[in-house]
TrEMBL record:
Residues 4-318 form the FAD/NAD(P)-binding domain. Its cofactor is FAD. Keywords: Disulfide bond, FAD, Flavoprotein, NADP, Oxidoreductase, Redox-active center. Residues 340-449 form the Pyridine nucleotide-disulphide oxidoreductase dimerisation domain. SUPFAM superfamilies: FAD/NAD(P)-binding domain (SSF51905), FAD/NAD-linked reductases, dimerisation (C-terminal) domain (SSF55424). Belongs to the class-I pyridine nucleotide-disulfide oxidoreductase family. It comes from Actinokineospora xionganensis. This is Mycothione reductase. Pfam families: Pyr_redox_2, Pyr_redox_dim. NCBIfam families: mycothione_red, PRK07846.1. The keyword Oxidoreductase applies.
Amino acid sequence: MRHFDLIIIGTGSGNSLLDPRFADLDVALVERGVFGGTCVNVGCIPTKMFVHAADLAATPGAAARLGVDETLDGVRWPEIRDRIFGRIDPIAEGGKAYREEHPDNANVTLYTGNARFVGERRLEIDGKETITADRIVLAAGGRPVVPAIEGIDDIAFHTSDTVMRLDELPARMVILGGGFIAAEFAHVFSSFGVEVTVVVRSGALLRQEDRDISARFTELAQARWDVRLDRKIERVERAGDGVRVRLVGDEVIDADVLLVAAGRTPNSDQLDVAVGGIKVDDHGYVVVDEFQRASAEGVWALGDISSPWELKHVANHEARVVQHNLLNPDKLLAADHRFVPHAVFTSPQIASVGLTEQEAQRQGVDYVTATHEYAGIAYGWAMEDTTGFAKLLADPKTGQLIGAHIIGPQASTVIQPVIQAMSFGLDARAMAHGQYWIHPAMPELIENALLKLPLEMGHWVRRMSDVRTRG
Ligand SMILES: Cc1cc2nc3c(=O)[nH]c(=O)nc-3n(C[C@H](O)[C@H](O)[C@H](O)COP(=O)(O)OP(=O)(O)OC[C@H]3O[C@@H](n4cnc5c(N)ncnc54)[C@H](O)[C@@H]3O)c2cc1C
Ligand SMILES: NC(=O)c1ccc[n+]([C@@H]2O[C@H](COP(=O)([O-])OP(=O)(O)OC[C@H]3O[C@@H](n4cnc5c(N)ncnc54)[C@H](O)[C@@H]3O)[C@@H](O)[C@H]2O)c1
């Protein structure tokens, strides 16, 4: 049995903890899968590489309306796939080789295997070797959920872990779920010419979004894909080389590929964290305090194993907090989860930060709201966009923004100044009036939505004029 100063489980965001400041510690890094974790291997990065290719494939459809005739001559799927993974796979190999072989990592031992708690700060690797440590970081992420559908064990189906490596493009794909992964892959595969059917148990796609965004996206998706809302799957079965999905009420969908996109679950169960004295919540997320400390002494957690946001920028932030706290045990830093944004890289893009209108109502928060269409700013008008908009929510008393939701071109970029304003407490009126907005650029969408917020101006105008007179 070997004892370490520090054990890190998981080489996704966990791998980024180690830098020269840890050189004096004897460290074990444990990884059971591909080195580098979800984001780089099967998550954010390859999906966005496919989304970029899909956006290109989709341009002829959008261009004709503006008088530019283009044709899509073909999508060379095997080449796209091999180009993408030809760039991705060496990152994993390089990262692993760096930790195993480079003199920078003389203090690091990489264990390739499954870690499981067999006691407090005591782990077994693949049921064979036992290792212990003074401190342990849980960065073991999560995995796709596969609902218990009758027949699912007897058919070949895909999750986001495997669907990007398909041998060939299918003619028809059925996607189960209406969340992030469904929305992104429906865009990718339909842009490449696949006939996509989306089966959702509720009445809308992306229903965690603000209800206006979810409603607009659902409407656009219905025009593009075969969207079956409010459906329940009765059973799935093999049909020739493909799958047959039977819905409750005699509806049948035949497809070549079934993609299950029904959410993800944290890997805490497979780590037997309870044996290590580590508490989880009702959904299996490791419970952490503001400093990312788990309930057991000396144990820390970060990323998808403890974070219901399941987003890479959150995992990265928490990794920086844990890194600081491991190095500065007497000066702990708290994680900042006040304004966690997200974007869905579908078409059109969607981006959001802060409270949705339905959340504000549920929480009894006082708010005012304003919506501005892309068609109402010069660039959106030039593009002849007819469906995109930004919706803002603000506190009527303080003028602070409390939520922003955008659907439309470049939404993931256009939202960034709002995230900044919320994070630094910038008043919506100051934000609108106190700076130039480049004309005619896309952020004018935010400027116009800000100007529309029904906020009281008197006191604020006096303050601005004071600043200008003094200046
Ligand atoms: C298809 C897809 C697209 C996504 N796109 C985005 C996006 O655009 N933007 C965004 O912000 N987020 C995105 N995400 C989410 C993002 O990928 C995750 O939030 C992030 O990767 C989580 O990082 P992590 O370090 O917590 O876990 P991971 O990166 O999952 O790392 C955990 C590691 O621990 C290992 N492990 C697990 N259990 C054990 C064990 N018992 N023993 C040893 N090793 C173990 C795993 O093999 C894995 O390598 C996407 C996710 C998916 C699935
Ligand atoms: N752009 C991004 O940031 C990005 C992209 C992809 C994934 N992700 C992360 O990965 C996570 C997982 O994505 P996801 O799309 O799988 O999850 P999700 O939570 O976004 O959506 C899951 C969908 O599956 C449905 N569902 C759940 N259980 C079901 C069941 N038993 N039967 C039928 N339908 C069911 C839900 O109603 C929902 O529509 C996300 O929460 C997100 O944080 C992020």
